[in-house]
Design a protein that fits this description.
Blueprint lengths: L4 E11 L9 E9 L3 E5 L6 H9 L7 E3 L2 E4 L2 E2 L5 H10 L1 E4 L13 H10 L6 H14 L5 H5 L8 H14 L4 E5 L7 H18 L2 E6 L2 H7 L2 E6 L2 E7 H6 L4 H8 L3
Helix pairs in contact: 3-4, 3-6, 4-6
The structure holds adenosine-5'-triphosphate and nickel (II) ion.
The site of nickel (II) ion has 4 residues, from helix 1.
């Protein structure tokens, strides 16, 4: 891994203990660069989320996971050592999940959770953290950010919880952000603003982003590089211009035609 890269996966295989006979992820290799957005796209069930969960060390004990190389922000991951994953998850990587409702703690206010998140990564006072939190929420289209800070998760809609999760993930200033369909639950104007935020964060803080989606419009808008996944394998990759204008594989062409 060179110092421009924040994620390097070589030959990742995942086989779910409880699932079908075939591999959910079948020899995937990909790289995410600093300050760039790398999209992982493909139809539902092709294995995108499974790749993300494997990188985060979040697959179950009964699942078989192996790789030739997995490197995150200059940390070589040899096996699923719990402590190593905790360190990496806490310090280097943030993930925004497809379903936000499971990710917030129902017992604490939104403000509490954002402030805690900031203070576990940056040495700032509670007041400074509060101000950072309010500013970030405003950037994510919460006009009444001060009121939102006092709310419990159950008082917010799914889309609002998702934006809170995005605030927490961004404020952790991770080297690598993994965003799994982060805007699917949101309406179009909010979605556009959030994509802009993720884009700016990646440029301003040199954060590498692995952006999982099946929305090619979104990919065209923000991605620098693209990996096309099909049946557990990467079938084509390249920069966004190459993929959209000069696709090689039949599957990629079909995928592109389906949105035109
Ligand atoms: N916990 C699990 N146990 C068994 N099989 C699973 C499990 N999670 C996912 N799978 C299977 O693994 C394959 C890949 O699933 P995955 O969730 O990674 O797809 P995806 O590309 O993220 O799809 P989507 O776009 O719908 O989110 C699917 O066939 C799915 O049914
Ligand atoms: Ni998924």
């Amino acid at each position: 891994m060179n110092d421009k890269e924040v994620l390097k996966i070589e030959n990742l295989f995942v086989h779910f203990g409880t699932g079908s006979k075939k591999e959910a992820v079948n020899g995937v290799s990909l790289t995410v660069q600093k300050g760039k957005i790398t999209a992982l796209i493909g139809e539902s069930g092709c294995g995108k989320t499974t790749v993300a969960l494997a990188v985060m060390g979040l697959l179950g004990k009964q699942d078989e996971v192996k790789w030739s190389k997995l490197e995150i922000c200059q940390n070589m991951i040899q096996n699923m050592s719990f402590r190593k994953w905790q360190f990496i998850r806490g310090n280097k990587v943030s993930m925004i999940f497809q379903d936000p409702l499971d990710s917030l703690d129902p017992l604490f206010t939104v403000g509490n959770q954002i402030i805690e998140g900031i203070r576990s990564h940056q040495k700032v006072s509670k007041k400074q953290a509060y101000n950072l939190a309010v500013k970030q929420l405003k950037n994510l289209q919460f006009e009444d950010a001060e009121r939102i800070m006092k709310c419990y998760p159950f008082e917010l809609s799914g889309g609002m919880c998702q934006r809170v999760m995005i605030a927490i993930a961004i404020l952790a200033r991770p080297g690598l952000l993994i965003a799994d369909e982060p805007t699917t639950a949101l309406d179009v104007t909010v979605q556009a603003e959030i994509l802009k935020q993720i884009y700016q964060m990646s440029r301003n803080y040199n954060m590498g982003v692995l952006f999982i989606t099946h929305d090619l419009g979104v990919v065209a808008e923000i991605a620098d590089n693209v990996y096309i996944m099909h049946n557990g394998k990467i079938i084509e990759d390249g920069n966004v211009e190459k993929i959209f204008n000069h696709p090689v594989q039949k599957y990629t062409k079909a995928l592109l035609e389906s949105i035109l």
